[in-house]
Write a sequence for this structure.
């Protein structure tokens, strides 16, 4: 039988995590954040820590601490974003008695795509205890150059994977497990190929259906081009505008040249086939996934069927 679990409500985000930041410069998408925390949870080891690249508002980092990480250190390039995260999530626990875990969260400003791995680690006030997990929910919307210039906070370049090589490179340098969140339109086959080339195996997948945002709908040229080329998957089961799937990939470090075989390996073609299967579903439960999987992969698969957020920044 397929190994599919379903989550029908938010489990990791709580209370003020659902209050939109007052600064429009701070990324806010609860479903994306919730997905990233589930991915981290698939990899966390008690007593270990997380290096979160492109940490945004800090809500994900705080939720990872609540989920069991001993320490979470976030890096983000936005000054307003880091200021918000520092004020709301990186305060000492004594000042956030109703938020257990936040005292273990630190954030720093930096561009992870330009910094060396050693420079990233040096921004943490204290060494991060091992085992370490690298996570990232980077901008992943495929956009044209014109649209990219208007909304860089969500742009993943022409293939949606502009930031993935840097994220994967830091994980490879540290030889740690890696959690990466992308979109079903972000050339998912290529994403798995990049991961495997760096020595990673996809261990678990989390999918969350989500409507396309207004800016994305107004700038669909690149997404539609990728769909036409067979490198993007949209969900068109409902009337009106198409939706997509947030794709959370929990990846184990195996080392270059060591590829899992048979049912343990989810290939790039396998992930693309899985997303096409999900897109046959009529409801947000993604019930089509209850049938046989295209390539026989039998790893953990989770579907987040979450209430729709009323506010989404930047989309």
């Amino acid at each position: 039988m397929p190994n599919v679990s379903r989550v029908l409500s938010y489990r990791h985000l709580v209370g003020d995590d659902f209050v939109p930041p007052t600064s429009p410069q701070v990324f806010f998408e609860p479903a994306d954040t919730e997905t990233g925390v589930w991915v981290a949870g698939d990899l966390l080891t008690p007593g270990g820590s997380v290096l979160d690249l492109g940490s945004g508002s800090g809500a994900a980092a705080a939720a990872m601490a609540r989920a069991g990480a001993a320490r979470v250190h976030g890096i983000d390039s936005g000054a307003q974003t880091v200021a918000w995260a520092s004020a709301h999530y990186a305060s000492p626990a004594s000042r956030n008695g109703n938020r257990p875990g936040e005292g273990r969260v630190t954030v720093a400003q930096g561009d992870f795509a330009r910094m060396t791995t050693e420079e990233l680690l040096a921004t943490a006030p204290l060494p991060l205890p091992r085992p370490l997990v690298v996570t990232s929910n980077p901008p992943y919307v495929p956009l044209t150059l014109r649209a990219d210039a208007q909304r860089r906070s969500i742009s993943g370049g022409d293939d949606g994977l502009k930031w993935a090589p840097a994220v994967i490179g830091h994980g490879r340098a540290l030889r740690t497990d890696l959690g990466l969140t992308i979109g079903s339109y972000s050339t998912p086959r290529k994403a798995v190929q990049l991961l495997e080339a760096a020595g990673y195996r996809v261990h678990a997948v989390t999918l969350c259906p989500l409507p396309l945002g207004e800016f994305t709908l107004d700038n669909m040229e690149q997404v539609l081009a990728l769909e036409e080329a067979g490198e993007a998957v949209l969900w068109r089961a409902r009337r009106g505008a198409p939706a997509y799937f947030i794709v959370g990939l929990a990846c184990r470090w195996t080392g270059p040249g060591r590829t899992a075989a048979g049912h343990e390996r989810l290939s790039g073609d396998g992930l693309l086939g899985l997303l096409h299967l999900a897109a046959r579903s009529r409801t947000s439960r993604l019930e089509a996934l209850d049938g046989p999987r295209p390539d026989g992969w039998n790893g953990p698969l989770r579907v987040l069927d979450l209430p729709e957020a009323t506010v989404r920044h930047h989309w």
